[in-house]
Amino acid sequence: MHERFPVVEHLEYHLPNQQMVLFDNDDDVQEVVVWSTIFRTMLTKWFKTNQESKATRSFMFDQFPQQWVWNQKLKRWTMRNRGFAIGHMYYAHPTLGERYYL
After folding, report:
1. CA 97 to chain centre
2. Predicted confidence (pLDDT) at residue 1 exceeds the cutoff of 60
3. Rounded mean pLDDT of 25-40?
């Protein structure tokens, strides 16, 4: 048994409509395209949470996990009740263009 403290939350970011989509080979591609969960990513829900609550606007995306928890099952941010986490954004090389500048 071991403990990791503090928790490190890996934050995914993407350009508009370029999020990663996972599906099984058995899934119908036409149905996958219209799944509503495709558009519920950490980044898009961060924008939505900032739009709905003025208190969250003081946190940058990488600071957000200090006060909020990403619920993977519901695909939304919820207020953190205890502890804190550190947000870690994946590296983007300058040759990635727009994603780097994002």
Report:
1. 20
2. no
3. 69
Neighbours of 51 (CB within 10 A): 10
Per-residue DSSP letters for 75-96?
TEEEE--S--EEEEEPP--GGG
Query: What residue numbers bound the domain in which 33 lies?
Result: 7-101
Predicted confidence (pLDDT) per residue in 33-68, tens digit? 666 556 678 888 888 888 888 888 888 988 988 988
Domain membership flag for residue 62: yes
Please enumerate in sequence order all residues whose Cβ is within 8 A of that of 39, keeping only pairs 6 or more positions apart, or say none: 19
Tell how strand 85-89 and strand 76-79 pair up. unpaired
Of 5, 4, 14, 6, give the one whose Cα is nearest residue 61.
Answer: 14
Asked if residue 2 is part of any domain, the answer here is no
Q: Is residue 40 included in any domain, yes or no?
A: yes
Count: domains in the chain: 1
* Measured distance CA(88)–CA(33) in Å, rounded: 29
Please report whether residue 1 resides in a domain: no
DSSP letter (8 states) at residue 36: G
